[in-house]
Amino acid sequence: MPETGIRPRPTTWVTAPNLRMTVGADTLIYRDLGPSQGVPLILLTHLGATLDEWDPRFIDVLARDRRVIAVDLPGVGGSTGTVPGSVAEMAEAAEGFVAALGLRSIDLLGFSLGGFIAQQVALDDPRLVRRLVLSGTGPAGGEGIDRRTGGAYIYLDMLRAVLARTDAKEFLFFPRTPTGKAAAKEYLDRLEGRVMDRDEPISLTAFRRQIAAIRVWGRAAPQDLSRITAPTLIANGDHDRMVPSSLSADMQARIPDSTLVIYPDAGHGGVFQYVGDFAAAVLGHLDGGSPTP
């Protein structure tokens, strides 16, 4: 059962406590903030990420007017259990979490690996997902996913980060231009804003299981994305080195009632490089508007 209490609901990411809920055999860690009314927005994050990788500035804008819930799926961060072996099983875990919260309708935002999972949830249960946001992600069988996000490619940038004594996301998410480097520093500085109750880092074993699942996703047969009925916002940078930007256009062509936003001179983390614009686009989409491509 979800945790309950009479304390006021948190309104900012850095003050939202870590909550725990038993789902099946696992105990999942999550954060829940913003107003309690309305359709909640569920957040699913990227490869290797825990709750602490979400941009506080982005979430705080969303949480002003709506309930926002972010979760570590099994085996990730402070959640117990083992990382599921496939994206389909990760989607089942996410669906179990939503059911345990007692929610029958959600908005769903997935970034990168989280976007793979979000597509699967929308296909599994179209009645559950009211509106969908897919950022920095691609479809099953998308060309390049298995070689980039699911291959040795990512380890090379991780090694570069170790040698440079910085976070790997500086290389993986942002272009190595003056603007990109400045955006990376601002983003990483924002991640350090949370001091209390930080999440547990992902283990190497969990990370490798995620990589294996991504490799399978990248080599899988394409899915029929025309079965996604939720209005969908798709966003990415124009030079994504992890999930090729061309796959965003591919999804937009295949998902009915979808809108594509591409941010210039940006990479995999373009949605955080343009965090104000992306937050406004997400809010407009969730409120029924159409962001300007």
TrEMBL record:
- Superkingdom of origin: Bacteria
Keyword annotations: Oxidoreductase, Peroxidase
- Entry-linked InterPro entries: AB_hydrolase, AB_hydrolase_1, AB_hydrolase_fold
EC number(s)?
A: 1.11.1.10
Q: Does the keyword Oxidoreductase apply?
A: yes
Q: Which GO terms describe its molecular function?
A: chloride peroxidase activity
- The name of this protein is Non-heme chloroperoxidase
